[in-house]
Recover the amino acids of this structure.
């Protein structure tokens, strides 16, 4: 016995009319001219400060103080305006005595552990909240998520006193623990919501095959959660790399100074290093830009996963 599937339920004329309407109304995801113009304007406005920062980083002190960066349009080939001295001083010796090269390395020393450690801990916690049954699981998850609304600034003074009592001030460990604690609620929230959308059949199959929770977590959940892990890695890396307040309080100035703190002190007490700020700022933003561009394909997947079901 065979069953014929008809393409339409009405008359042929009605079916053709429906197909015609659907084709005419289907825009194929194309943006209108107004939308394209608006997005172009937003992109230009967003890029203008970066372009100005880059241009000023190659201009001399007198040129920066006497005219805006847009003045190069009149005479872009004026050799008295352009100089590489700013980058030479930023990456070497300068009047303020700030070692930007050492600060650049210190920023990596602070940022990498403060990004990797909370991801690992939050991944274990998210797995427990998603795939393990235990008393008080939902209540604990709500408490952790509620910490997102608590301002980080309220914990700075208690932490400073605690670190002082333990002799941890001005150490990398103090900054690591602060960033791990502040970033953990968001990490658990993002990863738990992502893992909740993973196919439960895969987890059940692993249980039937005798896989332990750790094996299931490490060989199945972690590879499937790469977009969510990369999304939080971008958030955490940018936050820690660009942080000034936490590093200034717990590290201060000295041998452990990071890039943002060194950038703040580069100008000096009398403003003698003002012309170096654009060059130092552009050096500071290169790494975050590279991190975002390298992980952006995972970022969109991690943020939109679970938003549409079915």
């Amino acid at each position: 016995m065979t069953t014929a599937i008809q393409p339409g339920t009405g008359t042929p004329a009605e079916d053709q009319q429906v197909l015609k309407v659907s084709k005419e109304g289907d825009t194929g995801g194309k943006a209108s001219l107004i939308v394209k113009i608006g997005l172009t304007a937003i992109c230009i406005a967003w890029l203008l400060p970066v372009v100005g920062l880059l241009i000023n980083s190659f201009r001399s002190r007198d040129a920066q103080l006497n005219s805006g960066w847009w003045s190069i349009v009149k005479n872009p080939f004026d050799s008295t305006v352009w100089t590489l001295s700013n980058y030479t001083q930023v990456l070497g010796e300068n009047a303020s005595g700030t070692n930007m090269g050492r600060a650049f390395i210190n920023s990596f020393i602070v940022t990498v552990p403060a990004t990797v450690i909370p991801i690992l801990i939050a991944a274990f916690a998210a797995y427990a909240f998603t795939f393990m049954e235990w008393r008080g699981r939902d209540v604990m998850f709500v408490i952790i998520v509620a910490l997102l609304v608590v301002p980080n600034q309220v914990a700075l003074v208690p932490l400073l006193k605690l670190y002082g009592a333990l002799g941890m001030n001005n150490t990398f460990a103090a900054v690591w623990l602060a960033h791990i604690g502040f970033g953990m609620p968001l990490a658990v929230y993002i990863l738990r919501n992502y893992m909740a959308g993973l196919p439960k059949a895969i987890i059940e199959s692993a249980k039937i095959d005798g896989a332990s929770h750790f094996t299931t977590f490490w060989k199945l959940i972690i590879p499937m959660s790469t977009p969510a892990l990369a999304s939080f890695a971008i958030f955490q890396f940018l936050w820690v790399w660009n942080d000034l307040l936490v590093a200034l309080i717990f590290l201060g100035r000295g041998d452990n100074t990071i890039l943002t703190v060194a950038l703040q002190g580069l100008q000096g007490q009398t403003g003698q290093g003002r012309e170096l700020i654009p060059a130092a700022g552009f050096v500071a933003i290169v790494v975050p830009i590279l991190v975002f561009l390298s992980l952006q394909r995972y970022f969109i997947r991690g943020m939109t996963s679970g938003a549409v079901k079915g």
